[in-house]
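Appendix B, Record 12. Input sequence as logged:
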Amino acid sequence: MRDANPHPPRAEPSDPALTPRFSAPAMGGLFIRGFAMGAADIVPGVSGGTIAFITGIYERFIEALRSLTPAFLIALLRGRPREAYSRFLAIHWATLIPLGAGIGLAILAMSGLITTLMDRHPGPTFAFFFGLILASAWSPFAHMKRRTAAHGAAALIAAIATFFFVGLRPAGLRTDVARDDIAGAAATIVYSAKLHDAREAADVRAQAGAASSLLFLDPDDVLSGAEPLIDGVPFTTFDTPEALAAHANAAGPLRVLTPARASLPWIFVCGAIAISAMILPGISGSFLLLFLGQYYAVLTAIHGSIDGGLHLLGRDADPMGALTGRPWWSDPLFLGVFGCGVLLGLATFSRVVSWLFHRAHDLTMAVLAGFMIGALRQPAMVVLDAAHTAPKPGAYWGLVALVAAAGAVLVLGLAVVDSQARARRAASAA
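Logged structural output:
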């Protein structure tokens, strides 16, 4: 007898039968990929989604995010424990746990190193990411089942739109006054966050008001060799927070500036927006945070939360906290609300991307390829800007070309490994 429905419905990705199984080698590989994604997410202009594509797990990453649903909690609240347990198991924990652990560890451990490389060696650092993105831009096209003129047009439109978007210049640093001993009068200005570049110091001076001197935490020597005055005001730099705090406490009246923080409702929205961009290859969530004016605030909250945790474990309290007067729980609270926005963005936007994959796979791939091609403008601009200050242009361009080639070779090597792995899985399934 013939089946009345020759086309049975496709099983949902959250079906327990399709849920990835825990496997030590697979989880190790996903952790490494997650670490690379987290490191990329720190860099304005580079997306963790790009790294997911490069390492061959993008669609698996999206489906894992799509499986993340509170349906098991709803079933539990309705008094259906067996259904809740089944729905809980249907979440792709075998993908989410190692990826999430890798991303989180990279953000905590690498934020200082990545930002230091961006500040001290911007040309080679962004050249490496340029090579990564350039070599991986072909990957979405390789995943397409059919290629038509319409797909090419969609990729071109996406590339042009992304090219113009990343060419926009974010606004400069905005600051909040955390402490003001003599309102309106000339005072010693303390900037409580670590300096990332000379422009940041100029932004602090522009917003400081009347000032007798400027104090900066500059362990990376951002202002080394700079003019002795910033807009007519002398400045002093310090390698450690302890040295800065000791000098500030003896300097008399202080005005302490911190990176401006959004209200908690708005930082929740910023988290949802930023993570939505991080999911897309070529669209950088960090770049969006710069536009929203919260990039430095989030980085400062990360470092503050780490210092607070170490203090609870017995390390001396951060001396900058006493200068700002900010309570110890403010950084974890700010970061926690941001994280809740991130979770909402992950849960909602991943469903949109998953729906597009299932309904318009090839068109979606073409658009993603366009995003990656257009996004090349951001690292290219940084490489070109850094060339103007390079002491030896010939050596600079040689290093930039070498580093970019290394990034491209890394992508091609990963592509070969991924292709061989897929071929082995297909052969074993046959």
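The beta strands are 175-180, 187-194, 211-217, 229-230, 233-238, 254-259.
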